[in-house]
Amino acid sequence: MLFFGKAIVITLVMLFKKEILSKRRFLFFRDDETKSSELSLETIDYCYAYNKYKIMTNDPELTIIKLFKDKTMQVYTEPVEDYLNKELLFSLKIRRLETVEGKNELIPSKEIAICKLENLGQPSIFKILKWNKIKEYEMDIKDLKENRRLDSLKPFINLKSNYLAEKCNLKDLENIKKSIDNLNKAQAGE
To answer: Are 103 and 117 in contact, with CB atoms under 8 Å apart?
Structure first.
């Protein structure tokens, strides 16, 4: 079965060799929303990084240590640092105390911001790309921006869900990346 999958990947790469080398695009996926039929190599790289991170780390909630006014934040990333990639997008959320079936529980919020890794280290620095305007979290977002009430809000980040990446298989993505690398090496005469 693995041989059959590799044969399909190699065939697709050979068919779309011109597009790969000139435009860095494949032409075999179709997006109904944009009516576009292109899947770039950057998308393949993102899906690969997404799946590798998710599988190898089990997508933990990463604790935010401190937020700064320049839209950066310190995040504890030691358990996942080998799998972090500057292209991955993360969702910033908080925990709110809510009553569920008569019990008080800390429930994760909706995504209140989108962020990505800026510098890997101890702690790592993430940059907030966009704050989401959610009326029910307005005061909490304001407090986060001012680095207040972190103990009670318990902010954290985890991998932002990506529909396309979820539909991909890590092994297939590895095979596609290897095939493209081999094709590029062959083109370069290596």
So the answer is: no
Q: Are 182 and 115 in contact (CB under 8 A)?
A: no
Do 84 and 78 touch, CB atoms closer than 8 A? no
Task: Tell me which residues of the chain have a pLDDT lower than 70.
Answer: 1-39, 190
Nearest to 93 by CA among 80, 105, 107: 107
The span from the CA of 181 to the CA of 184, in Å, is 5
- H or E stretch including 2? helix 2-15
The pairing of beta strand 124-131 with beta strand 95-100: unpaired
Residues 6+ apart with CB under 8 A from 180: 13, 20, 41, 44
Backbone angles phi, psi at 53, to 5 degrees: -60, -50
Pairing of strands 72-75, 124-131: antiparallel
Q: Cα(145)–Cα(138) distance, rounded to whole angstroms?
A: 11
Task: Return the pLDDT at 5.
Answer: 57
- DSSP state letter for 146: T
Whole-angstrom distance, CA of residue 28 vs CA of residue 37 = 6
Nearest alpha-carbon partner for 180 in 53, 2, 87, 45: 45
